[in-house]
């Protein structure tokens, strides 16, 4: 940074298949919620995450590793998304239902590796 007062915020979209409009709106609302409620964002990490030893990496907070985990977290904590009328409860419920249907379909579909392991010659 050229200024000692400069700050950098990095946003990495969670998945290339995400709806970027919904994701950006949700991240913006989460940030505003943090500012309004004075939620500490965590200490900055000035190290290369890929070079951390496993015991140090285990202490770093992680985001959800699956859609199922993300939906569980969304169900448990989504009131901040409805502030200002950006998202409605009906929209969020419909979205979660749609994504749960996608999970069900995914779980019921045989993975190509399963075909390779059990059905190929």
Describe the 3D structure.
- With 121 residues, the chain is mainly α.
- 49% of the residues lie in helices and 0% in strands.
- The protein has helices at 20-36, 54-57, 67-76, 89-108, 112-119.
- Helix 3 (67-76) packs antiparallel against helix 4 (89-108).
- It is flat and about 65 Å long.
Q: Number of helical runs?
A: 5
Helix content bin: 40-55%
What gyration radius follows from the Cα positions, in whole Å? 19 Å
Portion in strands: under 5%
Distance between the termini: 58 Å
Which stretches are low in confidence, meaning pLDDT under 50 for 5 or more residues running? none
Order of helices and strands: HHHHH
Q: What is the mean predicted local confidence, pLDDT? A: 90
Number of domains: 1
Query: How many beta strands in the DSSP annotation?
Result: 0
Largest sheet descriptor: none
Shape: flat
Instruction: Return the structural class.
Output: mainly alpha
Compact description:
The protein has 121 residues and is an all-alpha fold. It has five helices and no strands.
Q: Helix and strand layout, with pairings?
A:
Elements: H1 20-36, H2 54-57, H3 67-76, H4 89-108, H5 112-119
Offer a few descriptive terms:
single chain, 121 residues, mainly alpha, 49% helix, flat
